[in-house]
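Below is our example:

___
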Amino acid sequence: MRTILLAAVSAVAMTSTLPALAAEPAKPMYGAWGVDLTARDTSVKPGDNFDKYVNGAWYARTQIPPDQGGAGAGNDVYNRSQEQLRAVIEKAPATSQLGGLYKSFLDEAKVEQADDRPLKADLAKVAAVKDKTAFARLMGASHGGFGADVFQLDVAPDVKNTEVNTLYVYQSGLGLPERDYYLEDGFKPQRAAYVAFIQRSLAAAGYADPAKAAADVMAFETRIARISWPAADRRDAEKTYNPYAPAELAAYAAFPWTEYLDAAGAPGLGKVVLNENTAIREIAKVYADTPLETLKAWQAFHVIEDASPYLSKRFVDSRFEYVKALTGQSVIRPRWKRGVQLVDGSLGELVGRTYVETYFPPSSKAQMVEMIDNLKVAMGKRIDDAPWMSPATKTEAHAKLKRMQVMVAYPDKWRDYSGLKIDAGDLYGNVSRSRAFEWAYERADLGKAVDHGKWQMNPQTVNAYNDTSQNQIVFPAGILQAPLFDPAADPAVNYGAIGAVIGHEISHGFDDQGRKYDETGRLRDWWTAEDGKRFEAQAEVLGKQYDTYEGAPGMFINGKLTMGENIADLAGLQVSLDAYHASLGGKPAPVIDGMTGDQRFFLAFGQNWRSKMREDTLKQQITSDPHSPPAFRVIGPTRNIDAWYTAFDVKPGQTYYLAPEARSRIW
């Protein structure tokens, strides 16, 4: 699943409850026609830094709130959505699931009184383990509760048989965000904070020598990190599809698979698919070589770490000391925000249903559907006009585009949460039961026909995605807010903002990995060999550009890791510009405030990615995230589009000028 990634999960409190969106606003939320022109720094030439030209004054006047890792357009929409969700949740009776879960989180006095009592039963299960087979069962069972696993399990369509769901197994076992955090010198402060957190947690669990136990846990995870696949390698669609029958699996990677999968609720499978197969094999060896007591200390820590947000203040504060080292945040988010996030994550479609009824106008859905149709037409023309693509491959590409399923705002069928017990006086139990409920919901699809109407995001989520294995693109209602989408804005603005998001998701079906899936979502090479080589040559041009971008001090973007998102950013912007031009019906775009339609289009695109991030948060993104930092999601695509040069009179000698022959021309 490829996402647009627009907002961080931490957000700033707003000062008032927002009204329902009963009708479209009379005027745009930003500026006179949809762009905040006061955010610009016109002392910067667009060709020297288009992001600063569009957003420089905003950067200068904006302070990142202490309870979040960044600020920006995506954060603004997220903040607004959280206030809206808060209003929905606070109106729910305490006897309802929404109200009961939220009340259980806000009742700090009861949580403090309970302290670590709710944790003791889970820690006792860890302490009772007598051998590694029993420990494997414990890890399998952790998928429905608190704790960790050296593997990650996921139920999803089998990309070689896309109408049936299968079980995927991924490498896991790390507590830090990515393997580089264990191996690179630049992350020593984060490692030190992590070890200190492990030690505090194990001391709270009653370990006699928590310092030694913490060192052993860190050594265990570091061994896993060394043999884990780098993030860039995990993107390879063909390399990560490795099916094994049960007998083959046991022979390939020595591990108590039968007991483990049985405890996870996935017994008797005909096959499983290993994602990072060689890493999984080596992790199984590390598991076999590691003393049981170290494994138990590792699991005890992760039970505590996983449960800490739902325990007393001493656990919450201990965990936040570690989080500060990762993100640079200095203040924990207010409790109401954390409570809303819990409800959002646990009862997503239940709260989402009321959210869209209250805040999402049907006219916005109709406008989005029309724009998506226009962008699909524009993408089809891009396929027709691609000089490097043969007729046979174009035919296949059109078949994929035509069959691409589009889902907007909310699902046609809502989830049923009636089987989940919520007790307003039992926060820990609520979270534990919710996790078991979610894992059972996912696991129920195993071996069954794929339900193409299921959503993988909640309607209120400020994001979008392309599921390549189902050839579908999804745009939740949460993302359809200004400045990303504003029904009252100039059409050029909406095409430059949400239109580029739509184009991004469409283009994911044709990026360096998405292109490997056919119209049914099946992993199949439908390209001629020559076309594939020409595509890869153009992708390499783009990748080398991103390799030169210093995303954070001393850290450069990994063009291989971010390749798919960079291609989608560029192609999506091109396709949206084409669709905007087509929407004019052959007439010239109006000039507004002295600005052409193309200028307004690109300004809206730059405003869309406006983001100021703390250095630690930015480093985490560069290390582990397939999306480039926001500034280069503005700069990287625009400098490869001829129309941008014309719109802003970009000349040779300016910092980001590219000669026409050096521009990447994939789509």
